[in-house]
Every structure is written in C-alpha cells, then in structure tokens.
Design brief:
Elements lengths: L1 E5 L9 E7 L6 E2 L4 E6 L4 E5 L4 E6 L6 E3 L3 E6 L2 H10 L4 H10 L6 H10 L17 H11 L4 H4 L23 H16 L2 E9 L1 H18 L6 H14 L6 E3 L2 E3 L6 E3 L1 E3 L2 E3 L2 E2 L7 H17 L12 E5 L18 E5 L2 E8 L2 E15 L5 H16 L2 H5 L7
Parallel strand pairs: 12-16, 16-17
Antiparallel strand pairs: 1-8, 2-4, 2-7, 3-6, 4-5, 6-8, 9-19, 10-11, 12-15, 13-14, 17-19, 18-19
C-alpha cells in the first residue's frame, strides 16, 4: 500500500516552506516516526517524520524546492515493511543489531546532525545532557574539545556567509537568501515604512547589579542550576516599566489601541539561521531563576533550530542585547505589531561624577525605539528612566517597589 508523505500543517502566518535536506533516498527502508527530511519556514525548521514503516518508493520534491501545507512530498510503500518484520524474526547479525541500536538513539536536531556528519561522529559515542537523553549541540562541541585540545573558535560552525573550501576561488559568489533571512528583510522594511519610528537613549550605572551578581551569583547557580545573568534584571525592570506605562505594551489595530494586560516579552537571539525572537510568556509571574532558566532553554533551542512555532509567536514587547557582540550604541527596530523595543549594549568603564568627584563606573547605554504614532516622547523617556532607576537600585525589584519617576 502506498502512503503519502505530506507537508505538515504550518502556522497561520506561514504560507510555504522550503525543503532543506532529505535524510533518506529512494529505495531506503524507513521506520514509522523516523525523521525523513527537514523543512525550513520563515520562523523555524520542521522535522517531517515517516507516517508508516516501509520503503521510500518515490520522492516528488527535492532539496531547495518550495512546498505548501498538505502537498505530497514522497510516497512510502508500506508493504515493504512486511519483509522487514520477517527478517526481524530471524537471528540478527551484528550489523543488524548495530542498526537497531542506532534507531533507539533519540532524534537529532538539524544542526547536530550537520556537526556529526562534518566531524564523522556517531551519536552513540557522545555523552548527552539534553532532556530524555537528547544529544545537543553543546554536547558535540564539548566532546570535540575533549578529543582535540584546540581553541573553541576552531570548533564552531562556519558563518553562513563564509565561502566553502570546495568552491572555486573567485571575486564574487551568489547564493539564494534563506527563507528566514528573506522574512527578516521583509519585516524590517515593513517596520520602517509603516511605523513612525523614533529612538530615545539613556545610560545606566550597572555597578549595583554587577556587585549583586558577584556577591550571590555562585549561590544562585548552585541552587537553581543556571547562571544569574543580566537578562533577568532587564526583564523584571521592563515589566515594572510596562505596568507604569501601558502604551508601550500596547499595539495599534486599525483605528483602535489594543492594550495587553499580560507581559509576553520577546528576547532576540542570534542563531545559526539568523535572528529569532522567542517569547518569554507571562514574565510578570516569573522569578529571577525562572526567567534565567527559560531564557537559557530558549537560547539552546535557537542554537539547535528546535524552537516550536508557538514559541516564536506573539509577544508584546522585545528586548535585544547587541552588547554581547560589542555594540556600544544602536537604534533597534521594533518587531511589529509591537510598539517598542529595548536595546541593551556593551558595558564599559567610563568616568562619571558622584558627590562632586570623578570616578570610574561600569556604564551601559540603553536605547528605546518606539512607534511615535502611539507613544509620545514623554512616556518613552520616563519609561527608560524607570528601567534605569530599577537597575541602579536593584533592591527595588527584589522588594517590589516601583520607580520614583513621575
């Protein structure tokens, strides 16, 4: 019996996908639930499992071709599974036993499979740390570092725009933009064309936050299993500021203002496929530890290209941290239909005046870009002042005391 392998349902805002890679070829045996190919949408990479065991009879879509939801990608001959079951009743050779053992390994993300192929590794030889024994990208990097004492930079995957060694040398090369990169370009252009963007800046003295992290960071990590980073401070401060200035948590819907009485914060993350913005849901109900744990998990999923569509949907306000790449100052672009975005930057030691004396302090520039159609400069400036006050006196966050801004 021939079984059709179809493109799975896509998100409402996703019209089509691109075939990235087939993991099986015509004539290969497949097992029900086994990942046969990867699909790239403008948000995530999807794995397409086999609906039935059998033999891959025909492939109708090749790598690089577009496909829409419900479209037939291949045909599977389920009758081919009968012969396989007969073989399983016979004594298994060591080769068959090895294959069966490999099939018990948890499924791998596209980025992990790529690294295993490049370094000619077997997933069974690498200790795993992921949920349910899942092999992660960090596991592979750690294994490679242990096997070859070289600089970590040498083990990182090459940037997407770096010419491959097998390509002939030349002064130019051309390659198609990924679906995610095309979508990013479309959204950024739309944001600039359809919104009245304005950016306001401020600076924040990070000494109190850094002292708190230095004093309690080790105890925090021992108790909660995750490092105490800066992001939990910025998320908590942003929630307090959004409560005080609800227009920055609102959006324009036609001729109406849509106020959101919840705080789903997008956290911009750089991934091997490009910039993605997973959403931290109900941030106002989360402790510092819960925020750090969830952001760590979302960041790991972004690196492994395993974020689900629902983890990238929605969001009422976004935080982006260009400081991790060394950015001193920038004007971030809002993520429509949101109305504002907070940009974090590099912390630098700079001279400031305190009590009439010049002292060195760790200073970070903050940038708030907003839609001036909805948000006036007064609210935007005081919003940023609220965040500044929270961060310069983190005890306010810990005690739940609001800002002094009026």
């Amino acid at each position: 019996m021939l079984i059709e392998l179809r493109v799975p349902p896509l998100a409402e805002s996703v019209s089509e996908a691109t075939l990235l890679e087939w993991h099986k070829q015509t004539g290969d045996r497949v097992i029900r639930g086994e990942n046969l190919l990867d699909l790239e949408t403008d948000k995530v990479t999807l794995e397409v499992p086999s609906p039935e065991s059998g033999v891959l009879k025909e492939i109708r879509k090749r790598s690089g071709e577009p496909a829409v939801a419900g479209e037939v990608l291949a045909l599977i001959d389920s009758d081919g599974a009968h012969a396989e079951r007969e073989e399983q009743r016979k004594p298994q050779s060591s080769h068959v036993q090895a294959a069966a053992t490999a099939q018990q390994v948890p499924k791998l993300s596209p980025s992990v499979r790529k690294m295993l192929t490049e370094h000619r590794l077997s997933p069974g030889e690498i200790p795993t740390s992921g949920k349910s024994g899942r092999l992660t990208r960090s596991d592979v990097l750690g294994y490679l570092q242990a096997q070859q004492p070289v600089a970590p930079q040498a083990l990182a995957e090459p940037p997407a725009n770096k010419p491959k060694e097998e390509q002939p040398p030349g002064r130019e090369r051309r390659e198609p933009m990924s679906r995610l990169r095309r979508r990013i370009a479309e959204r950024l252009l739309a944001a600039q064309h359809e919104n009245a963007l304005l950016t306001t800046f401020n600076e924040v003295n990070m000494q109190a936050v850094m002292a708190l992290r230095h004093h309690l960071g080790d105890a925090f990590e021992q108790q909660h299993g995750v490092r105490l980073g800066f992001m939990s401070f910025f998320v908590t401060a942003s929630v307090e500021a959004l409560k005080r200035f609800p227009l920055l948590n609102a959006s324009i819907d036609g001729e109406d203002i849509l106020y959101h009485n919840y705080y789903d914060l997008g956290i911009a993350v750089s991934s091997p496929r490009g910039l993605v913005v997973p959403v931290l849901r109900d941030a106002d109900h989360k402790s510092f530890a819960e925020i750090e744990q969830e952001i760590h998990l979302l960041g790991q999923k972004a690196q492994e290209s395993t974020l689900a569509l629902e983890e990238l949907s929605g969001g009422t306000f976004t935080i982006t941290n260009g400081g991790v790449f060394g950015s001193l100052l920038s004007t971030p672009i809002i993520n429509p239909p949101q109305s504002a975005i907070l940009g974090m930057h590099k912390i630098s030691q700079r001279p400031v005046v305190e009590s009439g004396e010049i002292v060195m302090r760790p200073i970070m520039y903050l940038a708030l870009s907003y839609d001036h159609r909805l948000i006036d400069g007064r609210d935007a400036v005081q919003f940023l002042v609220t965040i500044k006050e929270q961060l310069e006196d983190p005890n306010r966050m810990l005690l739940g005391i609001g800002s002094r801004a009026k």
